[in-house]
Amino acid sequence: MVRSLHFPSKTPSVSRFLFYSFFKTLVGQQVTVELKNDLAITGVLISVDQFLNIKLDEIKVVDEARYPHMIPVKNCFIRGSVVRYVQLPAQAVDTALLQDAARREAQQPTTAQQGNVRVK
Amino acid sequence: SIGETATNRKFPSAFADRYRRQPGSCKGRTPTDPYKGDGTGQSPRDVTHTQKRHPPNPPLRNSLTMSDVVPAPTTAVPAPAPETNAVEEPLDLVRLSLDERIYVKLRGDRELRGKLHAYDGHLNMVLGDVEETITVVDINEETYEEVIRTVKRNSEMLFVRGDGVILVSPPSRA
Asked: Is pTM beyond 0.95 here?
């Protein structure tokens, strides 16, 4: 089977999109996203995509006094590449399932190869 | 003739047939199915929009395809693979640390100690029960003395983006 550039619908759900699938299970949870510029935003996870871009609703900046410019902002889209951490509620995570998925993901070609091959 | 566009005057008819717009093709929205496989699920931009479907491009002759660059997988759906492979790549060593406590060194003078629950080829990780240590250098303006101190923070469950990771290791008992 030739692997096409478009994301094949027949691949097992784990392959190459482990954390994308993981975040999809967390939609609706309250999370805190810490960005690389040290800004931390708490909000409800609305959606996520394959790049781990994040959409948050009902946001509140963690240290509001330091970052007053976000006070009127209710929801936001965060580019995945600027995220440093995402703090998650521990009870929303099935660690056994996650570890299992990570073990399976390791058997397949890593996602790191994906970015290097762009063929037109 | 009816339906003739600039396109099919220049290209052979095969191309024109594929790229000629069908009347009404821009109208009518087919919603993306969020459960269809992975990678085509709901993206943040798609929450209010939907995407148009385009016909796939015909395969080009005499040019590289993915199969030339990446070896095609031997099976469409891999059977449960054996837990250990003969060749131990660096990521296999990380796999051995699943469900174990690990030490992660990050950019920005940060370190994490926590239990590894998941990781991928980018070194994105989910850690549980994690303690973050940030090393800060304070400089006294008068004496120009550099004071090194650490700030610690705790999280029950933390996703770490891989592009900040420098190294992963079993924790050293300091």
From this structure: no
